[in-house]
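Course assignment 3, question 2. Fill in each field.
Student: A.L.
Task: Predict the tertiary structure for the chain below.
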Amino acid sequence: MIKDLFDTCLSLVKIAIKSRPVNRIAANIPSQQVVIIGNGPSAKDFLEKAKIQQPNATLFAVNKFAIDPVFNEIKPEFYLLHDADFFDFTQAVFENPGLHPRTKLKPEFEVWQSQINQTWERLLNQTWGITLYIPNQYKNTYIVKKAKTKQINIQTYNYTVTRGFQFFKNFAFNHSLGMPQCQNVINAAIFHALLLPVKSIYCCGLDHDFHRNLIVGPDNQVYESVSHFYTAEAFKHPLIHADGSGKVFLRQVFSNLSKLHTSYFELSKFAVHQHIKILNITPGGFVDEFERENAEVLFSKL
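Answer field:
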C-alpha cells in the first residue's frame, strides 16, 4: 500500500515532467485480431505461411524486421521502433555506418548500424502507408524528419515508466501518458496493441532464449550470440555499456531479463482491464505469462 502510494506519486511527477500530448492515429482493424511478429528464429515458419496465405489478422512488426524481403511481401500495417540506436545517428552515418562513433569502441557495431540503415531504407521506400510508432523524444531526429516526408504515418508515444496503484496505471496507460517499463521492443509493441480496437493479440517469434546464448570468456567478458529469422549466422559480440563505461556483468544481464518478464506480467494485467486476450503462438520459447495457442488458428477460414 505504502509502496504503491509512493510509486503513484513519483509517476505523477514523471508524467508532469516528461509526458506530452499525443494524437492517436485512427486504426482500421477489420479482423479485431493483431499479430505481433518478434524477430526470433521461430518466426520463420509463421512468415513462410503468411507469404502464401494472408492470416486473419493485422500484422505488427518491430525493429529490423524490414531488412528481410518478407517485409514487402506481407506488408505489415504497424511497425514499432523503441531503442535509441534506431534514432541516434546523423545523415553521414546513415550513408556510411562505419562513421558511427561507437565503432571506435566496438568495431562490430558497424554491422549493427548497417542493419539499422537497411531497416530505415526499407521503411522509407514502402508504399502502402505503414503506421510507425516511435518514442516522443526522438521525433526531431534526422531520420524521423526524413520519414515524415514519406508515406509513413508517424505515431509518437510517451515512454514514461509508470508504476503505482493499478487503477492509476490503467488510467495513465489508456490516456497515453505512461507505459510499463519496456525492457525490449516486444513489451512496447504489446502495450500499443492493447490500445487498438482488437479482441486478441497473438505473439510469434518470442524465442527469448537469451540466457542460452551467453558465453563468459577466460577474461570474464560476457559475450552474447544473437540470432534472428532474417540472418543466416548469429551475431556474436561482447556485452559492454553503450556509454563506454565498461563491460556488462551477468548480474546486470539477469536483472534485465527479470525486468523483461515483469513487463509481460504488467501487460497481462492491463490486458484484463482492456478485455483483450494475449496469446503466444511461438513454438517453445521462454515466455510463460500468456496462454499458448497454435498459429494455425490464424489461417483457418472465418
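Instructor remarks: The mean pLDDT is 92. The chain is about 35% helix and 15% strand.
Grade: pending
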